Amino acid sequence: MARSIIAVIAGYVVIFLLVSATFIGVFLLMGVEWSFKPNSFEASNAWNVMALIANFLIAAVGGFVCALIAKGGKAPLALAIVVFVLGLIFAVPTLFANKANANLVRSPNLSTMEAMAHATQPAWVPFTFPVLGAAGVLLGSRLKRVS
Q1: Are 67 and 141 in contact (CB under 8 A)?
Q2: How many domains does the chain have?
Q3: For the whole model, what pTM was predicted?
Q4: 69 contacts 7 by C-beta, under 8 angstroms
Q5: Which of 6, 32, 39, 88 is deepest in the core (most CB within 10 A)?
Q6: Cα separation of 40 and 51, whole Å?
């Protein structure tokens, strides 16, 4: 039982760290103009596609790590449920942020941190993350079983 709990926690920590590093890294590498639509704080289509793909792949890595540590059992399913539930909880506040930042115009001399603070996405995007994340975890855990 303890191994399963540790596996779920480790899988989630891996996901959290990889999401943070990936999104910050891509934003810093690609810049504000690539990340946002012109004169807007709305995420660009390229950013949204990258986010959806990265979310799925990172969740698969987390599922793989969880299955590797758990060595069987239902720990990957528990991690998928945790990812889904927390993903929904974190998606709801984005609706309010989108409303608050909807009419803001992005100026060209904006700092990176300020741009990130006002970023918005189409309302459907954050709600796909829990589904893709849970599916990624389950796929990653199956990859462990194959190897």
Answers
A1: yes
A2: 1
A3: 0.87
A4: yes
A5: 32
A6: 18
